[in-house]
Write a structure and sequence with these properties.
Length: 271
């Protein structure tokens, strides 16, 4: 009897928690990160190549939407480190405080190669930032390292393997996952700077997330989210207009997906 009741309860919880929550009304949302306060912080490009209409928006735990910082160009990748947000904004990286004040963290001139299309950003435990430049979306892409000292170096240059890097994610053992716009999922070993392809077929690859060894990859072009585990990939979500840069919630129970063309943010419970 006890087992049956538990079963019924689990069924109810399962049904309630396994529905997507969708928040709408955003202008070209590109990337998301959950903050220390449990709010979701979102970059909104506004109109592409239109200056100063980009902004950072906060969705609090009750779903209330407010503007954190504005006057940006085309903000994209967004990540938290020590309660500050680091965001790529076309050809620079900016730092945003939670009170909304912001400044340039790595300006265009501090890059050893002129950035063309800064895209994703992520951070190592020691505060080093990894930043992708998707180049012309065909080739010429770069991966930059921005050290805490502010020094910017090129980690990887466009080559036969890295063409137009988009999503980037540090993982265990000094490795980085990179998804290329052309569809390849790459693993870079930071100990020897070797890059290997571990999967492909994610055309228009945008964001990356990882939970217990399962990698989640969004395809902007296909409007899909894939999972990749044990050497195999499968679609777990589809029907987006442009699934942009995804992120996991801090407790890793939910995947957060901004849809750039639909102007929505979907919060999807993971099994
Ligand atoms: Ca803009
Ligand atoms: Ca991106």
């Amino acid at each position: 009897m006890r087992k049956i009741i538990t079963g019924i309860l689990l069924t109810i919880i399962f049904n309630v928690s396994y529905s997507n929550e969708i928040i709408s009304g955003f202008k070209m949302p590109e990337s998301v990160a959950e903050g220390p306060d449990g709010s979701i912080y979102l970059s909104e490009i506004g109109e592409r190549d239109k200056d100063k209409d980009g902004k950072i928006t906060k969705i609090d735990k009750n779903g209330k939407v407010s503007t954190v910082a504005e006057g940006l160009y085309d903000p994209k990748g967004i990540v938290f480190y020590n309660d500050k947000l680091y965001i790529t904004d076309r050809d620079a990286v900016i730092e945003v405080n939670l009170d909304g004040s912001w400044g340039v963290y790595a300006g265009t001139m501090s890059f050893p190669k002129t950035p063309v299309f800064l895209n994703d950003i992520d951070v190592s435990e020691n505060g080093d930032l990894y930043v992708t430049d998707t180049g012309d979306f065909d080739s010429g892409g770069l991966v930059f390292l921005i050290e805490k000292s502010g020094k910017v170096t090129v980690m990887f240059e466009g080559n036969a393997k890295i063409k137009a890097p988009n999503g980037i994610l540090p993982i265990a053992d000094s490795k980085l996952l990179i998804v290329d716009w052309g569809g390849d999922l790459l693993e870079a070993n930071l100990k020897n700077n070797k890059i290997k392809k571990i999967a492909d077929g994610f055309d228009g690859g945008d964001g990356l997330a990882i939970k217990n060894g399962t990698i989640y990859i969004s395809s902007w072009k296909e409007g899909k989210v894939y999972e990749f585990k044990n050497g195999k990939s499968k679609v777990i979500l589809e029907g987006f207009k442009a699934a942009a840069d995804i992120a996991l919630s801090k407790d890793k129970t939910h995947l957060i997906i901004p849809d750039m063309k639909a102007g929505t943010v979907t919060i999807h419970p993971l099994k």
